[in-house]
Design brief:
globular; mainly beta; five-stranded antiparallel sheet; about 90 residues
Length: about 90
């Protein structure tokens, strides 16, 4: 399943379902993204224009069709975007 939202600048943020309670999240047209925390413990991901995605928040905060599952980890991808793991 793939779901997208638009941020305040009109850029798309894509949520793509992966195996095992994981989601790939990526943004189009963002010039930068901030990560917060330590390299082995990322606590937030903040692309230009949003959404601000952080551990401990439910995925359905970003779109009504996403599951009501809390984010437990955030892993950056070398190709851009992140992998978000959620509670089962």
């Amino acid at each position: 399943m793939k779901i997208f939202t638009r941020n305040r600048y009109g850029h798309e943020t894509w949520f793509e379902s992966r195996r095992g309670n994981k989601w790939k999240v990526s943004c189009t047209k963002a010039h930068y993204c901030r990560l917060g925390g330590e390299p082995d413990n990322i606590i937030y991901w903040d692309p230009e224009g949003g959404p601000f995605i952080e551990k401990g928040v439910s995925l359905n905060r970003f779109h009504k069709d996403l599951p009501d599952s809390l984010i437990t980890s955030i892993k950056p991808l070398k190709t851009g975007g992140i992998i978000v793991s959620t509670e089962p």
